[in-house]
Write a structure and sequence with these properties.
mainly beta, Maltoporin, Chain A, 22-stranded antiparallel barrel, five-stranded mixed beta sheet, 56% strand
């Protein structure tokens, strides 16, 4: 009999599902809580959570509807061993590994990928893109290597955001939120059938909020307001077509357009300059009149915004109850515009005035992918086999003007990726199953780079150009053993490797070629997914050990000169730890949930010039993280909830010879209380209720730090129809 795991913690507004909604369907306890199987969208070898041996955390629609979960980054607070990156210009962190690795911007390939409705996002779109969670169905976070089925961009894991699909019932919602710092968020969604076999859904979300951080000496510059205000919006449309009139064949079209301009979170400390500022002043104009140079040099302060366009076509066809074909075509295109905060600022003599110095440029990235797979599922045998192809391009340019001299750099990268993948789960003896899988992955990269410097008269003074290419083929294996204790509890032991391809390039500063090898990770993991107490207590637990070789690191041969950067293999490390996640339906109206993450990370061999990090932990990798929360209420009437998140101390990022600062542990509390009618709810909420001050990054003790989100108190009105 197939195992059925109960739903994760459900809370937030009128969509709360009380335990009384599920009746006598539990096999162990006729009075137990049965909330249905949790469907997975990111695991190609399993369609439901109970089938997957991966360490996956699932946040449901009800969790994402809470006003304390404003975007994807907020959702990470509820997941063990997962966090947002330390800077705005950074990725996310899974088990102490940043999604961009130790090469900013995910140069070469990210270590973890972000998918929206099955479409892989570019590196810039993962930083700034469709981050809102309005009208989202669920988020799945896969921890640890997923390279066998997901590919080269999943050595650390993968994140999948699934928005609500169309159905053949008319429904919708309107949402209005207002909070501190002029935080305004609005959302509207509507779905309806267009015919007997065609349905649509449309959603729009907009958010704007003033920064907690001050920029007084930037006030006169053209881009000050963009720097000091967080703003994003997303427009999304989906169309579901059933060509045969049944679910046997489904064609799902999705289109989205988003704009995202987040605020930076860096502030100056007492050791930054002689200006006498402290972290309490929350001064973000670190290159203004408090700069360490004794004068303003605002060209170092970037203002960035990104537009992202996603398109997807997902076709599924069931040949039978056991055999299903899936074809997914995805396109993600992002354009990130960057300019210094003073770009366009008029000065008397731009050739001599540092306030006339500027940077301007853009990043243009695109991923076009096609995947086709077959899934077979019978009582004792389950397998998946598929092919994958992707075409990627990354183009960027930057123009810097300083003291009459203009330098223009242009970079292009074209990537081809082809793969065959598969996995078999076979029950060879009652309750015992063997798992075997692998991926054959081919990767080819071609790069070009040019740099041209002209003087005040427009005469070219220096120029350089380079080109490089690299290709490789890798086999990525997976092997495991699973034991089903009973229909509701399964343990599994799996070995899986992770992979990030190598590459090559040429340093712009001196035209010297360089190359670097692939990163590889070997991960062994023991997992338990269980349902106890008649379905009222659901537990997921994992312990893992990972050995990571040939870590790719960006190095600047000339300190402060980005044109001298190159990538080298400079590391071997290990990590181990685990996660425990619990959901307990204590009564029909009270749900208690908790997650615990334990993590040990260590560089075993990591040497860059005179810098030796052997024996030190990874950056932003706390050894403990803990979440405890509850929700009380039902589908109507009063409800209340909240959660406490503890994040342990960690070391900040690696920045050459600069000592790594220790980031102190911190505790934040989110809370909400409200009242729900049949279709309307009103909720008062607070994030970081006690206004805990914490830092996610520090460049040397007391120098420059990234300030964590301060307290926000607000109110939300939600109407469904």
């Amino acid at each position: 009999m197939a195992c059925t795991l109960r739903a994760a913690a459900l809370w937030g507004g009128t969509s709360f599902l009380a335990a009384t909604a599920a009746l006598a369907q539990d096999l162990e306890d006729p009075d137990g809580v049965y909330l249905g199987e949790i469907q997975l969208y990111g695991d190609r070898a399993a369609s439901t959570l109970d089938q997957s041996e991966a360490s996956v955390a699932v946040l449901t629609e009800d969790q994402l509807a809470s006003p304390t979960v404003r975007d994807v980054n907020d959702a990470f607070k509820l997941i063990a061993n997962v966090s947002d990156g330390d800077l705005t210009e950074n990725g996310f962190v899974i088990r102490g590994i940043n999604s961009e690795g130790l090469t900013p911007g995910g140069a070469g390939a990210p270590l973890a990928s972000f998918y929206i409705d099955g479409v892989q996002q570019t590196a810039e779109a993962a930083r700034r893109g469709a981050r809102g969670v309005f009208d989202a169905e669920q988020i799945e976070v896969y921890r640890g290597p997923q390279s066998t089925l997901t590919g080269r961009n999943a050595l650390a894991g993968a994140i999948y955001l699934r928005t609500r699909d169309p159905d053949f019932l008319t429904s919708g919602q309107v949402q209005l939120t207002y909070g501190e710092n002029n935080h305004v968020q609005t959302g509207i969604a509507y779905g309806a059938p267009l015919s007997d076999n065609l349905a649509m859904r449309f959603s729009a979300e907009y958010s704007r909020k003033d920064s907690d951080i001050n920029y007084p000496s930037y006030a006169a510059y053209p881009w000050h307001d963009d720097l000091a205000q967080d703003e994003y919006y997303t427009l999304r449309g989906k169309l579901l077509w059933l060509p045969t009139g049944s679910d046997d064949t489904r064609v799902l079209f999705s289109l989205s357009h988003s704009y995202d301009s987040p605020t930076p979170n860096q502030i100056a400390g007492p050791n930054w300059s002689a200006a006498g500022v402290s972290y309490d002043d929350m001064r973000g104009d670190i290159y203004g009149d408090i700069s360490p140079y004794g004068f303003a040099l605002p060209l170092f302060q970037d203002v960035r915004d990104t537009t992202v366009d996603n398109a997807g076509i997902e076709i599924t066809h069931a040949f039978s109850d056991r055999l299903v074909l899936t074809a997914l075509t995805g396109l993600s295109s992002s354009i990130t515009d960057r300019r210094s905060v003073n770009y366009g600022y008029p000065v008397a003599d731009p050739d001599t005035d540092f306030e006339g110095a500027y940077n301007v440029g853009s990043f243009d990235q695109m991923i076009l992918s096609q995947e086709v797979r077959l899934n077979y599922d019978s009582e004792r045998l389950r397998w998946v086999a598929g092919v994958y192809a992707a075409d990627e391009s990354n183009d960027g340019w930057r123009e810097q003007f300083l003291l009459g001299s203009t330098t223009r750099t242009d970079n292009t990268a074209d990537i081809r990726n082809y793969a065959l993948f598969g996995q078999v789960d076979y029950e060879f003896s009652p309750n015992w199953s063997v798992i075997a899988g692998g991926r054959i992955d081919y990767y080819k990269q071609s790069q070009t780079a040019t740099a041209v410097t002209t003087d005040v008269n427009g005469v070219v003074t220096t120029t350089s150009a380079s080109a490089s290419s690299h290709d490789e083929t890798a086999f990525i294996p997976k092997l495991g053993l699973a034991y089903r204790i009973n229909p509701f509890n399964t343990v599994a032991l799996t070995y899986q490797e992770g992979y990030r391809p190598g590459g090559s390039g040429v340093r712009l500063s001196d035209a010297q070629p360089f190359s670097y090898d692939a990163e590889k990770a070997k991960n062994i993991e023991l997992s338990w997914k269980g349902s106890l107490m008649g379905g009222r207590l659901n537990v997921g637990a994992n312990v893992f050990y990972q050995d990571w070789d040939n870590q790719q690191v960006e190095i600047w041969a000339i300190p402060g000169d980005s044109t001298s950067s190159y990538i080298a293999n400079a590391g071997q490390s290990e990590s181990y730890g685990g996660e425990v996640e619990i959901n307990y339906f204590a009564t029909d109206r009270l749900n208690i949930y908790a997650s615990l993450g334990l993590l040990h990370t260590e560089f075993k061999d990591f040497s860059i010039g005179s810098l030796n990090l052997a024996g030190q932990p990874f950056s932003n990798a706390p050894e403990q993280s803990f979440v405890l929360g509850l929700f009380w209420g039902a589908s109507t009437g009063w409800f209340a909830g909240g959660n406490m998140t503890y994040t342990g101390s960690a070391l900040s990022r690696i920045e050459g010879a600069t000592p790594r600062a220790e980031l102190a542990h911190y505790v934040t509390v989110d809370a909400q209380v409200g009242y729900a009618w049949d279709t309307v709810s009103i909720t008062a909420y607070a994030t970081n209720l006690f206004d805990e001050t914490f830092y996610t990054y520090e460049y040397g003790p007391g120098s420059v730090a990234s300030l964590g989100d301060r307290r926000e108190v607000g109110i939300r009105l939600n109407k469904t129809f």
